[in-house]
Structure of Regulatory protein VirG:
Amino acid sequence: MEHVDHILIVDDDREIRELLSGYLTKNGLRVTVAADGRQMRSFLDGNTVDLIVLDVMMPGDDGLVLCRELRAGKHKATPILMLTARSDEMDRILGLEMGADDYLAKPFAARELLARIKAVLRRTRMLPPNLQISEAGQLLIFGEWRLDTVSRHLLDKDGTAIALSGAEYRLLKVFIDHPQRVLNRDQLLNLTQGRDADLFDRSIDLLVSRLRQRLGDDAREPTYIKTVRSEGYVLSVPVEIAETRQ
């Protein structure tokens, strides 16, 4: 039987839930709705979905809190698309930092949400297979550093853990899964943030700068993440698997 993508909509506005549920169902998707974090948790306790549409502005636990919670639990790999009524760019960046794959500002057309959902699902499924292998729980070695894909910590040569933000982890993870290969900004945006490269076109530069600081990399003569003029960035050292956890 052909797989039908299952979407969970979490929004406290009943009209929006009904409108989106009807439209997405009409366009071939399976839809479940939840009015708040409690209903979302109750449903996800015994079910899995292909993507979660999560409203930011909700009473009780807001979308940012729920996004962080999802990313720390068993649904950490489920794509999340956030809805926000705010136009503040910091709100959008916060959502992406906490692990959202995309966001859409209200008001929006239902067909645009459908297009975004399809784009996020497509990008998620286009990730190279080796991206999923390292998520099984391994220590990945590059130079004097190791990345723990379970705790999402960076470990230095003495084993000291350095916490990474969600965005920093995803960017480092993409470099590690494509070592010694030049990646341009569009590719990095798509792989780390799951969206078209029309937003935060310079945010990758900012993230690279922060990641270099975590790695103790000199921005003028970096050892790990090198800048390739007019092309992008490259993790210039090979990557090895240290161990596989049972």
The two ends are 33 Å apart (CA to CA). The chain has a mean pLDDT of 82. The chain has two domains: 6-126, 130-244. Residues 9 and 16 are 9 Å apart (CA to CA).
